[in-house]
């Protein structure tokens, strides 16, 4: 993050935006700062008899709308405000308190920009244009003077930490965002579902929720139980009633159907049914959840800043001109809210100079309503595109709809089992299912030596297995009792993503082969101590030779043949440059190629190489500690490359 911050000063776009925002911080004074926020802090700093700023302010007849934020927000802003108050009293001026108060907002703004670049480093220029220069951010934060950029920055930090598998620290930061502003509760269920589907670990999810709840109770609990001012200013804030603003009354009854909670629950249910969620899809759903709150309530202007980080991600990742909707939304927002919200005045000048001018050309309510309608319509259009593209680009969503089928065959069973265990370790055992041809053998039904009877039996076994495979692909219940007993829980939950077909007929049975996305064949021994492995897929990619040294698990001696060598040059460069392995490349007349790989491959080298080959692999790998070194690591690498290629093909078809 420090390096990202330093690099920002090399960008002219960042410097232009920083100069613009610095002018607002230095020269303009938002009206709500003088009416609400600064009096709240001034009351606390001038009162030495209370450690509860909310109760102290409330008992001194302060405005109950002054500071509807939690203790985290208060403590974040307090140091610079205290310094400004001290310096103002020291030099007998009234400038530095407000100036340093606004510095908090500028720092949060820069921090959120750094977070976006940290998570999507290839889109730095896009975020500088779309987020850093966003007119909505400038208006809400520096002209209108609202503080919501701080809690949304903390909330986004928690999402980034959790997406990087830092679940416990992310849970704690998530609690801090809620304590800063209770509206961040909107996104909590979606993040917890994201954790569950990413890890499928009930203990980890329980610990994550526990840390979240304990953090809130320890930090905010005393205020919830004993603070009169906190109850009146924060818990009874006028914004809470807006949840129930839109409703459908039932005939002859005082009971109503509340539209916002109903819509939120429907979105939550749909999100749960997705089963697999990557970070981009999480962003899409979070944007949707915040948007429906804004659309279905009389939302203040400050709430719109919740959407900007998520909109920036979408516009930054998209290669079309959808960002034009964002610019149009910014224009409509600025025109409308210039008349409907408080603004700023120049320091040491008439605070109402702009308001007096705007009063002369103020549009009527019909025009304001029309502008608000256009604003809502544009948000709906953007949310639609974000959600649609988030789903269409999500590998996780594709896996949730249809599992990938991988064939395993050959007469060396120990390698069949070994290979399946390698992939189980990566994806988790609840994400894979194995169909073994041994489960379809008829026991003692055909003892005749008649070749016709044996052939008929083999065909019947294959047909049963193919029928069960088709049912599993469609996530239906199968008839084989023995197999069903082994995978009952996976069938009930329907959360498996890979189906292994362990059968000697994978490459010879056309019906069976047609259902596979790719397959491995562990063949006959070639030389003493060496086992031959062949892989076949619809892309004609294969592994032809394998040798495992017994004295070290990290030693590699493996030869891989590719009938269609699409990635061979890229793989070779990574293995040589990143892993330090010796690689011999052979190209044959029929268009096939092979890699012979020697050397020592550590587990961390396997992980780093896969990150280089498949940048988004962490969408479906919950545990980075289950990568192997040596030849096993090479097999994991080749599997994931082919796995990713199949996903790419499924998305484009």
Widest beta sheet: strand line-up: 6-7-5-8-9
The Rg value, from CA coordinates, equals 31 Å
Number of beta-strand segments = 13
Tally of discrete structural domains: 3
Instruction: Outline the low-pLDDT stretches.
Output: 443-448, 524-540
Number of helices: 27
- Counting helices, strands and paired strands, the structural category is alpha/beta
Short description:
With 653 residues, this protein is of the alpha/beta class. Helix content is 59%, strand content 11%.
Task: Show the helix and strand layout.
Blueprint: H1 2-8, H2 12-27, E1 28-30, H3 31-46, H4 53-59, H5 71-91, H6 96-119, H7 124-132, H8 135-143, H9 149-163, H10 167-180, H11 188-199, H12 202-226, H13 228-235, E2 247-249, E3 256-258, H14 259-273, H15 279-295, H16 308-317, H17 323-340, E4 344-346, H18 353-360, H19 365-392, H20 395-401, E5 404-410, H21 413-427, E6 432-436, H22 451-473, H23 481-493, E7 498-502, H24 510-514, E8 518-525, E9 531-537, E10 545-547, E11 555-562, H25 568-577, E12 582-587, E13 593-600, H26 603-613, H27 630-652
Parallel strand pairs: 5-7, 5-8, 6-7
Antiparallel strand pairs: 1-4, 2-3, 8-9, 10-11, 11-13, 12-13
Helix pairs in contact: 2-6, 3-4, 3-5, 4-13, 5-6, 5-10, 6-7, 6-9, 7-16, 9-10, 10-12, 11-12, 14-15, 15-16, 15-19, 17-19, 21-27, 26-27
